[in-house]
Amino acid sequence: MLLELPVTVLSQILQDEDTLTKAVEKALRALQLPQDKASCKDEDDVSASSDSLGEQLFELVDVYNTGHSQKITGMLLEQHREAVLNLLSDPHLLEEQVNFALKTLKEYVTYYDLSDAENIDRLGDKLFAQVEELDPLHANDITGMLLEMDPVALQQLLGDRTVLLGAVQKAQAALDNLKQLNSSSQMHLSESIESVVFYY
């Protein structure tokens, strides 16, 4: 089991006796779980139990020493029961899924570790490029309007062209209404000035 770990993890384990001891203990616990399961009267109920699957999966994930065993286990448990059972029986598939989950976690942490201003700037740049394709003349104004939205909604705009198109059309309508209000206000202001000047 330990020899199936990635070379980097294996070399790290071999360099530190304490880490090696912990890895061997984790591997032994993981190997003993199926034996404990076999000794139960109702084997199907135990394997079907999400707690039992979670414990088994955690023991296997924890061997990788990612520092995120609980989060990765939780991510993997969101899959269908059959997929989780496949992970328990296929070390290569488990390694692939653990690496993918770890990569996803690192990307998430990297994104949310940036300051809000950096996130907004990055989203703004991406959003501007897409809005400019739809309305080059008003891309600055529309992008500014859309950046007032929640970051999750902005991500949705960036991921779905139809949603983005709808948001751009609403922003265009708002800009048109603003122009009409401004021209109407200017007309009223001109009339007011004329009446004041005419009165005197």
UniProtKB/TrEMBL annotation:
Matching entries from PROSITE patterns are given as:
PABC (PS51309)
Q: Which InterPro entries match?
A: PABP-dom, PABP_HYD_C
Q: Name one GO cellular component term.
A: cytoplasm
Enumerate the GO terms in the molecular function aspect: RNA binding; ubiquitin-ubiquitin ligase activity
Q: Give start and end of each PABC domain.
A: 33-110
GO annotation, biological process: positive regulation of canonical Wnt signaling pathway; protein polyubiquitination
Q: Which Gene3D superfamilies match?
A: c-terminal domain of poly(a) binding protein (1.10.1900.10)
One Pfam family linked to the record: MLLE
User: Which domain of life does the protein's organism represent?
Assistant: Eukaryota
Q: What is this protein called?
A: PABC domain-containing protein
Instruction: Please tell me the species this chain comes from.
Output: Mola mola
- Tell me the classification of the organism that encodes this protein: Eukaryota, Metazoa, Chordata, Craniata, Vertebrata
